[in-house]
Amino acid sequence: MQLSAPAILVAARPHGETAVIARMLTEESGLVAAYVAGGRGRVLRPVVIPGNVVAADIRAKSDSQLPFARLELVRSRGPWLSEPLPAAAIAWATALTASALPERNPYPTLYAALGGLLDAICSSEAARQWVEALVAYEALLLRELGYGGERPAIADLGQALEILDRQEGLIARYLLADTRTDVLAARQLLRQRLARMIE
After folding, report:
1. DSSP state of 101
2. What 3-state class would DSSP assign to 183?
3. Burial class (CB within 10 angstroms; exposed 0-12, middle 13-18, buried 19+) of 149
4. Sorted alphabetically, which keywords does the UniProt record give (predicted)?
5. Distance (Å, whole) CA 22 – CA 196
6. What is the pLDDT of residues 147-188, one digit of tens each?
7. Which helix H or strand E contains 109, and what residues bound it?
8. Are 94 and 13 in contact (CB under 8 A)?
Protein backbone atom coordinates (compact mmCIF):
# COMPACT_ATOMS: atom_id res chain seq x y z
CA MET A 1 0.00 0.00 0.00
CA GLN A 2 1.25 3.47 -0.92
CA LEU A 3 -0.94 6.48 -0.37
CA SER A 4 -0.26 10.20 -0.21
CA ALA A 5 -3.42 12.17 0.42
CA PRO A 6 -5.11 14.70 2.65
CA ALA A 7 -6.91 12.99 5.51
CA ILE A 8 -9.11 13.81 8.48
CA LEU A 9 -7.65 12.23 11.59
CA VAL A 10 -10.54 10.55 13.44
CA ALA A 11 -8.78 8.55 16.18
CA ALA A 12 -5.36 8.20 17.77
CA ARG A 13 -4.50 5.41 20.20
CA PRO A 14 -1.20 5.29 22.10
CA HIS A 15 1.09 2.45 21.09
CA GLY A 16 4.26 1.63 23.00
CA GLU A 17 6.17 4.45 24.64
CA THR A 18 5.96 7.18 22.03
CA ALA A 19 4.03 5.93 18.99
CA VAL A 20 0.38 6.23 18.01
CA ILE A 21 -1.96 4.15 15.89
CA ALA A 22 -3.81 6.80 13.91
CA ARG A 23 -7.05 6.23 12.04
CA MET A 24 -7.62 8.63 9.18
CA LEU A 25 -10.46 9.18 6.75
CA THR A 26 -9.30 9.77 3.18
CA GLU A 27 -11.48 10.60 0.20
CA GLU A 28 -10.36 7.79 -2.12
CA SER A 29 -9.24 5.03 0.28
CA GLY A 30 -11.73 5.52 3.10
CA LEU A 31 -10.70 4.82 6.67
CA VAL A 32 -7.04 3.83 7.02
CA ALA A 33 -5.14 2.89 10.18
CA ALA A 34 -1.40 3.50 10.36
CA TYR A 35 1.50 3.47 12.81
CA VAL A 36 2.88 6.96 13.51
CA ALA A 37 6.35 6.83 15.09
CA GLY A 38 6.81 9.57 17.69
CA GLY A 39 3.10 10.40 17.62
CA ARG A 40 3.11 11.24 21.34
CA GLY A 41 6.30 13.25 21.14
CA ARG A 42 6.56 17.02 21.45
CA VAL A 43 6.56 17.63 17.68
CA LEU A 44 3.70 15.34 16.60
CA ARG A 45 1.42 15.47 19.65
CA PRO A 46 -0.42 18.59 18.36
CA VAL A 47 -0.75 16.95 14.93
CA VAL A 48 -2.42 13.67 15.99
CA ILE A 49 -5.54 15.29 17.44
CA PRO A 50 -8.87 13.90 16.18
CA GLY A 51 -10.48 16.42 13.87
CA ASN A 52 -7.21 17.72 12.43
CA VAL A 53 -6.68 17.65 8.68
CA VAL A 54 -3.29 16.19 7.80
CA ALA A 55 -1.24 15.46 4.71
CA ALA A 56 -0.64 11.74 5.12
CA ASP A 57 2.10 9.71 3.48
CA ILE A 58 1.12 6.08 4.20
CA ARG A 59 3.22 3.08 3.18
CA ALA A 60 3.14 -0.66 3.83
CA LYS A 61 5.26 -3.47 2.43
CA SER A 62 2.26 -5.81 2.20
CA ASP A 63 -1.50 -5.68 2.59
CA SER A 64 -1.32 -7.73 5.78
CA GLN A 65 1.08 -5.30 7.48
CA LEU A 66 -0.04 -2.24 9.44
CA PRO A 67 1.13 0.72 7.36
CA PHE A 68 3.53 3.37 8.60
CA ALA A 69 2.50 7.01 8.20
CA ARG A 70 4.24 10.35 8.14
CA LEU A 71 1.87 13.20 8.91
CA GLU A 72 2.03 16.92 8.29
CA LEU A 73 -0.51 19.28 9.80
CA VAL A 74 -2.75 21.05 7.26
CA ARG A 75 -5.52 22.41 9.51
CA SER A 76 -5.68 22.25 13.31
CA ARG A 77 -8.83 21.90 15.38
CA GLY A 78 -6.78 22.35 18.56
CA PRO A 79 -7.94 25.91 19.35
CA TRP A 80 -11.57 24.74 19.63
CA LEU A 81 -10.80 21.91 22.04
CA SER A 82 -10.73 24.37 24.94
CA GLU A 83 -14.39 25.28 24.24
CA PRO A 84 -16.71 22.66 25.83
CA LEU A 85 -19.42 22.50 23.15
CA PRO A 86 -17.20 22.49 20.02
CA ALA A 87 -14.83 20.03 21.73
CA ALA A 88 -17.72 17.66 22.50
CA ALA A 89 -19.03 17.92 18.92
CA ILE A 90 -15.61 17.26 17.38
CA ALA A 91 -15.06 14.31 19.75
CA TRP A 92 -18.44 12.79 18.87
CA ALA A 93 -18.20 13.25 15.10
CA THR A 94 -14.71 11.75 14.91
CA ALA A 95 -15.40 8.89 17.35
CA LEU A 96 -18.58 7.95 15.46
CA THR A 97 -16.74 7.97 12.14
CA ALA A 98 -13.81 5.93 13.47
CA SER A 99 -16.13 3.35 15.06
CA ALA A 100 -18.79 2.99 12.37
CA LEU A 101 -16.89 2.87 9.08
CA PRO A 102 -15.21 -0.27 7.78
CA GLU A 103 -11.56 0.15 6.83
CA ARG A 104 -10.39 0.85 3.30
CA ASN A 105 -13.82 1.35 1.76
CA PRO A 106 -14.10 4.74 0.04
CA TYR A 107 -16.90 7.06 1.17
CA PRO A 108 -16.14 10.33 -0.64
CA THR A 109 -19.50 11.84 0.35
CA LEU A 110 -18.82 11.16 4.04
CA TYR A 111 -15.30 12.55 3.73
CA ALA A 112 -16.67 15.81 2.32
CA ALA A 113 -19.54 15.92 4.83
CA LEU A 114 -17.26 15.35 7.84
CA GLY A 115 -14.89 18.04 6.62
CA GLY A 116 -17.81 20.43 6.19
CA LEU A 117 -19.21 19.59 9.63
CA LEU A 118 -15.86 20.17 11.35
CA ASP A 119 -15.42 23.45 9.46
CA ALA A 120 -18.90 24.54 10.54
CA ILE A 121 -18.21 23.67 14.19
CA CYS A 122 -14.97 25.64 14.13
CA SER A 123 -16.18 28.69 12.20
CA SER A 124 -19.62 29.25 13.72
CA GLU A 125 -20.20 31.70 16.53
CA ALA A 126 -22.83 29.47 18.16
CA ALA A 127 -23.87 25.83 18.11
CA ARG A 128 -27.24 26.78 16.63
CA GLN A 129 -25.39 27.35 13.38
CA TRP A 130 -23.91 23.82 13.16
CA VAL A 131 -26.41 21.52 14.91
CA GLU A 132 -28.30 20.98 11.64
CA ALA A 133 -25.04 19.93 9.96
CA LEU A 134 -24.44 17.42 12.77
CA VAL A 135 -27.94 15.95 12.38
CA ALA A 136 -27.44 15.74 8.61
CA TYR A 137 -24.03 14.05 9.03
CA GLU A 138 -25.46 11.36 11.32
CA ALA A 139 -28.33 10.77 8.88
CA LEU A 140 -25.90 10.59 5.94
CA LEU A 141 -23.71 8.09 7.79
CA LEU A 142 -26.72 5.89 8.50
CA ARG A 143 -27.82 6.17 4.86
CA GLU A 144 -24.37 5.48 3.38
CA LEU A 145 -24.09 2.32 5.48
CA GLY A 146 -27.55 1.15 4.48
CA TYR A 147 -29.64 2.04 7.56
CA GLY A 148 -31.14 5.46 6.89
CA GLY A 149 -33.79 7.33 5.01
CA GLU A 150 -33.98 10.89 3.74
CA ARG A 151 -32.14 13.92 5.03
CA PRO A 152 -34.37 15.38 7.76
CA ALA A 153 -35.93 18.82 7.29
CA ILE A 154 -35.14 20.96 10.33
CA ALA A 155 -37.11 24.08 11.23
CA ASP A 156 -35.43 25.12 14.48
CA LEU A 157 -33.04 24.08 17.24
CA GLY A 158 -35.73 22.23 19.21
CA GLN A 159 -36.58 20.08 16.21
CA ALA A 160 -32.88 19.43 15.54
CA LEU A 161 -32.45 18.16 19.10
CA GLU A 162 -35.55 15.93 18.75
CA ILE A 163 -34.07 14.38 15.60
CA LEU A 164 -30.73 13.90 17.36
CA ASP A 165 -32.55 12.01 20.11
CA ARG A 166 -34.39 9.82 17.57
CA GLN A 167 -31.20 9.02 15.67
CA GLU A 168 -29.38 7.87 18.82
CA GLY A 169 -31.28 4.57 18.90
CA LEU A 170 -30.48 3.85 15.25
CA ILE A 171 -26.82 4.72 15.76
CA ALA A 172 -26.54 2.54 18.87
CA ARG A 173 -28.36 -0.39 17.23
CA TYR A 174 -26.79 -0.36 13.79
CA LEU A 175 -23.52 1.56 13.79
CA LEU A 176 -22.13 0.94 17.27
CA ALA A 177 -23.58 -2.45 18.17
CA ASP A 178 -20.18 -4.13 18.19
CA THR A 179 -18.23 -1.32 19.85
CA ARG A 180 -17.61 -0.25 23.40
CA THR A 181 -20.13 2.04 25.11
CA ASP A 182 -17.62 4.86 25.58
CA VAL A 183 -18.30 5.97 21.99
CA LEU A 184 -21.93 6.75 22.84
CA ALA A 185 -20.75 8.48 26.01
CA ALA A 186 -19.20 11.14 23.76
CA ARG A 187 -22.61 11.69 22.16
CA GLN A 188 -24.39 11.86 25.50
CA LEU A 189 -21.94 14.53 26.73
CA LEU A 190 -22.58 16.55 23.56
CA ARG A 191 -26.36 16.16 23.95
CA GLN A 192 -26.24 17.37 27.57
CA ARG A 193 -24.31 20.46 26.52
CA LEU A 194 -26.71 21.16 23.65
CA ALA A 195 -29.68 20.84 25.99
CA ARG A 196 -28.42 23.78 28.06
CA MET A 197 -28.94 26.02 25.03
CA ILE A 198 -32.74 25.79 25.23
CA GLU A 199 -33.16 25.82 29.01
Report:
1. S
2. helix
3. exposed
4. DNA damage, DNA recombination, DNA repair
5. 33
6. 976 777 888 888 999 999 999 999 998 888 776 557 888 999
7. helix 108-123
8. no
